[in-house]
């Protein structure tokens, strides 16, 4: 609207100016030449000024770009130094042990790798370095190495890369012993449960029928020849006794799959060891043996099912007494290991476990004893795992066997 109004005023001013100039020209025609020039200039000033003001109103102003003062400031991207520091922190605290291999020289790359080579873990760090150096690139292997807690299995993968023009290998090592043991234990538990169920279903009618047949044979004793009666009686008695023995045998294995869930509570280890010492003292005194317990510090406590821990230690000490024979000796010690974990060690003076059999001693049905059932150590592993721990057989520096329970 303002532009249209300014345009109208401009046209009107132009017409008025032209008319004024025309009238002035006719009026001043008779005047002398100098006077006519001055008078024309004075008469032209007013319409020219009016036209100029109208033209100014028609001038279009360029729109101004408004700045958004309230807009949030853009975040600055991290600097290269900050990116490097973040990558180094993630690498340092990665849950996998990482090693660099240059010309068969193996060096730890993060905290997990340094802990693995530190005292208390790998018993022979140099052997572990050589094992990693021999691994081929581009493959995953399941390897085993010795630690102070026993043999440890781990998954290793090696990749080749070039850094600043130099070729090197990167090895990633993840211990999986605890996970493999847990899976193996679950598999054995399910197998034992199925086997015991099927065997019991078959043994129960055999035992019942053998007892019924023995009763019928006694009733018909006078109607059969003496030799036939005696042979049948011997056969039926053998069937009944063997069936009853098998029922008892299978029942002991059924306990592996029917252990009640752990009910952890805060336990003072010194008090638990005192109860075990009082319980086992008569048996060890009868064998002229010596059983000692120690806890460092004396105030050491742990969240665990006390009944299940006691049963696991009783099984280990029972095996120690049987393996040592005359004058058995055993020491049970508890302390905190690296990382704040509880470490309970049971050591005896027996012959120990042969290296060829050490990997199988916790397997159900396996026993080094002539009349053993292979249930004691399998139950120990089951009870320890149920409480979130691990159990290992470790080579003793001297004679005897050494079992390490870690929680």
UniProtKB/TrEMBL annotation:
<keyword id="KW-0812">Transmembrane</keyword>
<dbReference type="Pfam" id="PF02518">
    <property type="entry name" value="HATPase_c"/>
</dbReference>
<dbReference type="InterPro" id="IPR003594">
    <property type="entry name" value="HATPase_dom"/>
</dbReference>
<keyword id="KW-0472">Membrane</keyword>
<feature type="domain" description="Histidine kinase">
    <location>
        <begin position="194"/>
        <end position="407"/>
    </location>
</feature>
<dbReference type="InterPro" id="IPR004358">
    <property type="entry name" value="Sig_transdc_His_kin-like_C"/>
</dbReference>
<keyword id="KW-0067">ATP-binding</keyword>
<keyword id="KW-0808">Transferase</keyword>
<protein>
    <recommendedName>
        <fullName>histidine kinase</fullName>
        <ecNumber>2.7.13.3</ecNumber>
    </recommendedName>
</protein>
<keyword id="KW-0547">Nucleotide-binding</keyword>
<feature type="transmembrane region" description="Helical">
    <location>
        <begin position="35"/>
        <end position="55"/>
    </location>
</feature>
<dbReference type="InterPro" id="IPR005467">
    <property type="entry name" value="His_kinase_dom"/>
</dbReference>
<keyword id="KW-0418">Kinase</keyword>
<dbReference type="GO" id="GO:0000160">
    <property type="term" value="P:phosphorelay signal transduction system"/>
</dbReference>
<dbReference type="InterPro" id="IPR036890">
    <property type="entry name" value="HATPase_C_sf"/>
</dbReference>
<keyword id="KW-0902">Two-component regulatory system</keyword>
<dbReference type="GO" id="GO:0004673">
    <property type="term" value="F:protein histidine kinase activity"/>
</dbReference>
<keyword id="KW-1133">Transmembrane helix</keyword>
<dbReference type="GO" id="GO:0005524">
    <property type="term" value="F:ATP binding"/>
</dbReference>
């Amino acid at each position: 609207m303002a532009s249209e109004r300014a345009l109208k005023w401009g046209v009107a001013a132009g017409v008025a100016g032209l008319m004024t100039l025309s009238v002035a020209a006719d009026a001043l025609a008779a005047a002398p030449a100098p006077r006519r020039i001055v008078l024309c200039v004075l008469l032209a000033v007013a319409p020219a000024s009016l036209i100029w003001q109208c033209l100014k109103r028609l001038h279009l102003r360029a729109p101004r770009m408004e700045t958004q003062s309230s807009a949030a400031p853009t975040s600055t991207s991290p600097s290269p130094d900050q990116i490097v520091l973040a990558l180094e922190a993630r690498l340092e605290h990665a849950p996998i042990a990482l090693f660099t291999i240059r010309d068969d020289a193996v060096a730890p790359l993060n905290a997990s790798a340094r802990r693995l080579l530190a005292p208390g873990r790998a018993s022979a760090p140099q052997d572990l370095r050589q094992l990693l150096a021999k691994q081929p690139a581009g493959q995953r292997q399941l390897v085993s190495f010795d630690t102070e807690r026993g043999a440890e299995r781990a998954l290793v993968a090696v990749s080749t890369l070039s850094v600043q023009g130099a070729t090197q290998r990167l090895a990633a090592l993840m211990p999986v012993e605890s996970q493999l043991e847990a899976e193996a234990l679950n598999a054995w538990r399910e197998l034992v449960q199925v086997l015991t169920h099927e065997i019991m279903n078959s043994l129960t009618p055999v035992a019942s029928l053998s007892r019924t047949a023995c009763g019928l044979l006694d009733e018909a004793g006078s109607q059969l020849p003496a030799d036939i009666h005696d042979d049948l009686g011997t056969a039926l008695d053998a069937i009944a006794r063997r069936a009853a023995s098998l029922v008892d045998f299978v029942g002991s294995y059924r306990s592996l799959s029917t252990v009640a869930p752990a009910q952890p509570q805060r336990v003072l280890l010194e008090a638990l060891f005192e109860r075990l010492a009082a319980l086992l003292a008569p048996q060890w005194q009868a064998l002229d043996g010596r059983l000692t317990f120690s806890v460092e510090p004396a105030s050491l406590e742990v969240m665990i099912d006390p009944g299940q821990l006691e049963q696991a230690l009783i099984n280990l000490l029972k095996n120690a007494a049987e393996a040592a024979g005359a004058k058995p000796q055993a020491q049970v010690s508890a302390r905190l290991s690296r990382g704040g974990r509880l470490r309970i060690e049971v050591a005896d003076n027996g012959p120990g476990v042969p290296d060829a059999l050490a990997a199988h001693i916790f397997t159900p049905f396996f026993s080094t004893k002539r009349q053993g059932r292979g249930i004691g150590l399998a139950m120990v592993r089951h009870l320890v795992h149920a409480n979130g721990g691990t159990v290992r057989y470790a080579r003793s520096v001297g004679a005897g066997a050494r079992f390490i329970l870690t929680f």
